[in-house]
Design a protein that fits this description.
Elements: E1 3-7, E2 10-12, E3 18-25, E4 33-39, E5 46-51, E6 58-60, E7 68-73, E8 78-83, E9 92-99, E10 111-112, E11 116-120
Parallel strand pairs: 2-11
Antiparallel strand pairs: 1-3, 3-8, 4-5, 4-9, 5-6, 7-8, 9-10, 9-11
């Protein structure tokens, strides 16, 4: 039973930082591709980052590449998304997703968390 639970969102000022967590159960994050997505009201869901299974190769959307960092902790079976220099346009619900494959790019993710809200406002 694959489960994903996001946490770490909240209300922050522009320029601040957040570290989002994606806690997995029912599988190892080392063996699944993990993606981070976000969706703002009235906007299309956007993939922002992912990490491949096995070697853990990270990837980023151009819009966030200089400010976001994805990582995983095998012992905690958790994937993180560090977000720095937050901007109002980062406001969205952030989701993590998992798929039982190696590569995390250009795939359809099978399992999704329920999301965590990030609000950036002064």
């Amino acid at each position: 039973q694959v489960q994903l639970v996001e946490s770490g969102g909240g209300l922050v000022q522009p320029g601040g930082s957040l570290r989002l967590s994606c806690a997995a159960s029912g599988f190892s994050v080392d063996d699944y591709a993990i993606g981070w997505f976000r969706q703002a009201p009235g906007k299309e869901r956007e993939g922002v980052s992912c990490i491949s299974a096995g070697d853990g190769s990270p990837y980023y959307a151009d819009s966030v590449k200089d400010r976001f960092a994805v990582s995983r902790d095998s012992a905690k079976n958790t994937v993180y998304l560090q977000i720095d220099s937050l901007k109002p346009e980062d406001t969205a619900i952030y989701y993590c997703a998992a798929d039982a494959g190696r590569w995390c790019l250009r795939i359809s993710y099978q399992h999704w968390g329920r999301g965590t809200q990030v609000t950036v406002s002064s």
